[in-house]
Each structure stands twice: as structure tokens, then as C-alpha cells.
Amino acid sequence: MQKGKRQKLNEITIDGENEAPDLISKLPDELLHSIISFLPTKEAVATSVYSKRWSFLWKSLSRLYLDLYQINNHRARSLAIADKIVSSLSFSVDFFHLHHSPRTWVRSDYMLRWIDFLKNEKKLKGISLSCDKITAINFIRWFRVSKLGERIIHKFVIPKGSIFKGRFLQFVELNEYVLKNGLPFKGCVNIKTLKLGGCILADNTLVETLKSCKELEKLTLRHCSFMSTDVSIRHQKLKLLEIFHIQEQSFCLISERLDKLVLEDCVFSTTKSRILCPNLQVLQTNVASLPSLWGVLTESQQGAAITFSLAGALTVKRRINMG
């Protein structure tokens, strides 16, 4: 009798025919941990209802994906559930992604406590924070025409303090924030990859950030806005730079080790801009960026042999010469 019950539990019957047994439950715990780590955390926690064996598998997640909008419609309840999930983790966490509303920073200390806990207790290696994009876009549009914008801009500002300073943290991604200065990155000597998307950067913020991230190798700026008219990037160890959509800025790039540069939809002053990268090997761009880019490169990359890639065209290798 017991054998029959066990067989029914392990097999799926459709139209009177027996399908293959449930093989996934026979996988070793290590492999199951890896599989559920790629699920959104809400779904990973939901696997605990499958059986007693699955009850605690989610507590060993190595990748954490929290969307506070999807966890619960009520903000306070959503924060409480997420807090319980984070505090219940048993092992090291490689990557943490969080999507939240602007008010989460200013109305609770949950996010700061989670980041601090994961950095110091769970040896966090990578973090991606995303403020709600629709809310941010609506705010920016309103901010441009309202004199009261300064009163609520703090909702999008990364809090003060060395938030991203961690012994193991090497990857940081921020989407839809206001960066008033480089303090969040102070002492972040281990960060190798930094990605900023849809962020507003105040004067000297980028300069201060690059000075703090001394080991930085990869930098991506996507649809970022600069309060200053000058965009300056100087870094000795930077190897890859990607910039998407910069309009009417003076641009200065000096990097001795940079070997790949991606500039798309970038328009900047050719008379006030400068690119000096003696070891540049690959240049990727598009038609919109060519007028600005080519005028600057011909003055600063004399005799440099690079692989030139135009979006939608073949990659060619040519030597840039003056005259």
C-alpha cells in the first residue's frame, strides 16, 4: 500500500498514461541550490511548499532577486517579508538585486541594513539597485518645471556614507538615482565593475567616484545626465568604457590601459573634448556619434591601430593618421 502511494506521488498520470517520474527531486542539494538561485526570490521561496526536503532550500540562495512591488502590494508588508527573507539566509550571497520605490530609502532603514548585512556577513560580491523607472521618469519631467523639486529630490538620492565599501564587493550597478557626490563609493578599492543607468550626477561626482574605485576595470554610463557641462574620465586601470547617450557635453577621456571604447548616441564638443588612450584597440560606435568622435580621435590617437566597429556595419581595422 505504501509502495503504491509512493509511486503515485512520484509519477504524473495524464489521460491514464504514466509519465516520467519526478527526477528533479532526486538531484543533489547543491544542484538544486544553483537552480533556484536563478529564480526571482519570491518564486524561490515558494518552492518550500513542494515537500519537506524543499522547505529550507531557498535559505541557501547564492543570488537574491527582490522586487518590493511584486512581494506585496502594501509597502510596509512587503518590506517586512523581504527583511525576513534576507535575515534567514544561511550561506554566502554572490549577487543581490533590489527593485524598490523612491520612498524606501527615506522612510525606513531596511535597505541600508540589508546591504550592510550582506556585505559583512554574507560576503556579497555583486549588487544591483534599481529605483522604480516610471516613478523616476515622471519625477524628472515634473522637476524640470517645478520650483519645489528640491524638496523631494532626496527621495532619489543615495544616502550618505560608504554604502558600497565591502571586502568582497566587486560589482555595483545603480539605475535611476541621483548621485550628489562620490561618498557612497568612498574606500571602494575592490570594485572592478561599475554600471550607472539613468542616473543624475552632480558636479565632480564622477571624478570623486573614479578616485575612490582605484581598481576599476569596467565602467558603463547609460542615459546618464550630468549637472556639469564637463564630463571627465581619468583612470589608470580602466580597460573597458561604455557610454550611451551624452548630449552637448565637453568630454575628456584619459586612460593609459583602456583597450575598448564604446560610444553610441554621443554628441560632444570637438574643440573642447579630448581622448587620450594610447593602448586603445577596439572602438565601437554608431552614426550619431561619428561627427564628434572622429574629430577628437584624429587629434589624440595619431598613428594608433584600432579595430573600428560601426553599429550595423562590418568591423574594420584601420590606422588613424593625421592629414
Short description:
29% of the residues lie in helices and 28% in strands.
Outline the structure in words:
By secondary structure, the protein is of the alpha/beta class. It is 29% helix and 28% strand. It has eleven helices and 18 strands. The strands form three sheets. Strands 3, 4, 5, 6, 8, 10, 12, 13, 14, 15, 16, 17 and 18 form a 13-stranded mixed sheet that branches. A hairpin with a 4-residue loop joins strand 17 and strand 18. The radius of gyration is 24 Å and the shape is elongated. It starts with a helix and ends with a strand. The N terminus and C terminus are likely disordered.
What characteristics describe this protein?
single chain, alpha/beta, 29% helix, 28% strand, elongated
- Which residues form runs of ≥5 with pLDDT under 50? 1-16, 141-152, 312-323
| Helix percentage | 25-40%
Order of helices and strands: HEEHHEHHEHHEHHEEEEHEEEEEEEHEE
Name the structural class.
Answer: alpha/beta
- Anisotropy-based shape: elongated
Content of β-strand: 25-35%
Q: Given the structure, what is the number of helices?
A: 11
> Mean of the pLDDT scores?
77
Strand tally is 18
**For this entry, what is the oligomeric state of its chains?**
single chain
The major pleated sheet works out as: 13 strands, mixed
Radius of gyration, whole Å? 24 Å
Distance between the termini: 90 Å
